Amino acid sequence: MNIDVEGIEPQRIDQFLSNRLQDLSRSKIQSLLKSGDILLNGSKAKAKQTISNGDAISVILPEQEEAEKTPAQDIPLNVLYEDDDIIVVDKEPGMVVHPAAGNADGTLVNALLFHCKGKLSGMSGISDDEPDIDIHRPGIVHRLDKDTSGCMVAAKTDEAHRHLANQFASRSNEKRYLTVVQSKPNKAEDTIFTHIGRHPVNRMKMTVVNPGSGKTAITDYRVLHTAKDGTTLILCDLHTGRTHQIRVHMVHLGTPILGDPIYAKPARQVTQPGRLMLHAWQLVIDHPRTGERMAFQSEIPEEYKPWTDAAELE
């Protein structure tokens, strides 16, 4: 993968890569530096080297060849829409989106390769967090956390992939989520504007950080219903797509999501639905070939009914 360094303050290359390559652990990055698999401006990089704007970094991943041999697997999919350019699915909670360390198969990518008979874009998957990182994720233009359910679009052609990726990068699409949190926020509706970065101690977590050390994260939220036990159904509109964005923003409000194993303590929460209560309910995109504005909505999971029935969602 190739990374062009832009928009940063001078910093050590190992620190920069730890923040940028969120799919790789810090120890893995150190190992790649020691083995000479990370180059800075064409030369072997050292962990303590300082980088600045204009530098070019190359990262060689030995496992990437194996990743490109991802097998097609007959895994059931709930398809919301499909044509020759795109496929929109309602992802089940618990399904990993793409193969990675510890999840070599059984992912959404494996299922899509089987369902689409291999007809997925061959481009590398990208997201707001890593628009210039080359990782093989056939068809994937955005991601949902493993335990998050709901709408996802994948690209069948490279042209569709480019078009959709630009929509996600420019934020011209619409992403609306339903979540249930353990207590009612102080405000019934608001915009959360923070910067999010990797947690300095627990690398599995993201956290709100000072400007300049993270990336802008913007979430609009509105309370839809509060139950007698204080648990609250919230509608979130995402304007950025940072890793764990809604999960971090709900913690920032002091209202962690029910069932969140990373940012909360589910066993101590007053209600235990048995899953992470975060659902990508609605997705609006422009069709990559026709330009038609298309809206997709996934079925609300049964676990949400105690709150959604009371809120009388349409």
CATH topology assignment of the largest domain: Pseudouridine synthase
Uncertain runs? 63-67, 124-134
CATH superfamily of the largest domain: Pseudouridine synthase
Shape: globular
Architecture of the largest domain in CATH? 2-Layer Sandwich
Radius of gyration: 20 Å
What fraction of residues sit in β-strands? 25-35%
- How many separate structural domains? 3
Order of helices and strands: EEHHEEEEHEEHEHEEEEEHEEH
**Gap between N and C termini:** 44 Å
Question: What is the average per-residue confidence, as pLDDT, rounded to a whole number?
Answer: 88
Helical coverage, percent range:
10-25%
Structure, explained:
By secondary structure, the protein is an alpha+beta fold. It has three domains: 2-62, Roll (Structural Genomics Hypothetical 15.5 Kd Protein In mrcA-pckA Intergenic Region, Chain A); 65-170, Pseudouridine synthase (2-Layer Sandwich); 171-314, 2-Layer Sandwich (Pseudouridine synthase), CATH 3.30.2350. Helix content is 18%, strand content 28%. A hairpin with a 3-residue loop joins strand 7 (79-82) and strand 8. The longest helix is centred in the middle third of the chain and has 13 residues, at 158-170. Residues 63-67 and 124-134 have low confidence and may be disordered.
